[in-house]
């Protein structure tokens, strides 16, 4: 960037605007009207322009204010520059998905990836073929930090809150389903509390805990369950359910996928478990970024369509 800053100390950009409007209108009176200025102010600006460029710039004639060759040359050079400056300063850039060549970095857990990414990927391939998705495996305890460090653009998260610098927008509220494989066990449905507490359980814990809100809720009922496997990932659970007589209580958004692809059965858990919110998180400084705004709107649209389909 080769800019001599001191050169601009001698220039008032408002004067250049007056020059362009005078050139277009060929009249001090009409230029003043377009600029919402008094005629004396425009005449004064013209006097300063003449001094700055050492040229009359405009001369009176029967047709109005005729530009000099110097004025014609200046306008030819300045008009596109001023138009570009206006676009940069005052017009929000647009995002065209069909022409975009961009990578979106998403932070998601593995269950959100299997629930949301397939329809999002399909939509992007159809409507934004030049866009790439880069998924980072994360969890609710890391999402905000990754956004603050600019390591991801958007998180789909079950985090219940966010720092001020991070915007949180709820996408949906979701409950839980309990899964098992029918070749391993055939409990009556809906599940009873007795059958639930008698079985082995597989547990997902991001922090490695061996209990969850389910166990705390069972404790209030004087009950407990037997957790035989704990993991931070959801992906292995259906494979283990195919091989053992166990239950896994997980977000209800996985039901369609796990029923279709793993042959699992599902029932609501036989106790009251508070539903949770799934939200989008992004950094506040990027709130109006056109590309990210489009992505957020796309996610909202896909979930709304999924909700209408049931």
From TrEMBL:
Residues 11-68 form the HTH lysR-type domain. The keyword Heme does not apply. Pfam families: HTH_1, LysR_substrate. Keywords: DNA-binding, Transcription, Transcription regulation. The keyword Transmembrane does not apply. GO terms for molecular function: DNA binding; DNA-binding transcription factor activity. PANTHER family: HTH-TYPE TRANSCRIPTIONAL REGULATOR LEUO-RELATED (PTHR30118), TRANSCRIPTIONAL REGULATORY PROTEIN (PTHR30118:SF15). Belongs to the LysR transcriptional regulatory family. This is Nodulation protein D 2. It comes from Serratia rubidaea. The lineage of its organism: Bacteria, Pseudomonadati, Pseudomonadota, Gammaproteobacteria, Enterobacterales.
